[in-house]
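Section 3.1: Structural characterization of target chains.
Under the original work plan, the team committed to producing a structural model for every single-chain target entering the pipeline before any wet-lab resources were allocated. The record below documents one such target. The sequence was received from the expression subgroup and is listed exactly as submitted; it comprises 264 residues.
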Amino acid sequence: MFVIAAGLAGYAVHVAIASWNQDFLPDAPSFAPRDDFELIVLVLVIAGAVFQTGRKLLAPSAERVLAHDHRAPVVYLRPFDEDCRRVHAQPVGTRIGGPNLETSSSPASLEKVLAQALSRIGPFIAVGMPGDTLAPLGAARLYLSDDNWQAEVEALVRRAAAIVLLPETSEGTRWEIAKVMRWANPRRVLMIVPNPALRPLGYARIRKLSEESMPVALPEALDGQNAFVFDAHHRPTPLRAEKITAKSLEPFVTQVLQLDGASP
């Protein structure tokens, strides 16, 4: 993104200088911005894609991260579909009548925000999706076989400094919820849920799951919060923010560091 922004800024300067030349230096060679605009945009897009791919190729594995950072990890448990889920700027589907709408979208995953916000606690680790060609940026990936993934995840949960749980109704995530509720200190658990103001059916689905799988169910009504922390008795408390940011997660980070006896 930085490469694209810098390139566009440079292009804007180039256009401004060319316009000044035409106004004050009539004999200067003419310049038509439209002639090469598409080419410049294409080059910038390719440069941005190459830059992102390079960052992914250089991202260390979970084994390497844990070998160099001896703190207890922050374990990110989520459905694999979350890695590729996207948020669309406009409704998706065939439009009948009216003007055409832009169909831009962006990644829905909060992984990069979580990785940055929780780095003070410990290394951010997640189980990698089988078949990954390039792991997304954020958590260091640990790739496990079908034969031993449950034993490995249970071991991670037992030693984790903190656990970020993004629940879903699949069999795998139900198993993860059960293990977290059984083995983890609830004050070390951060649960991310669909924002009920934006995805009411999604929140209702997760709330029903909490009634079936958790000692204390999530509340029925919220004011748009989409994250919970827990007390020692598994009672959920929503974080007072409608968007997940480093600042909104600060109460959770402070709570975990105090449990470890570290300075917040």
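The radius of gyration is 23 Å.
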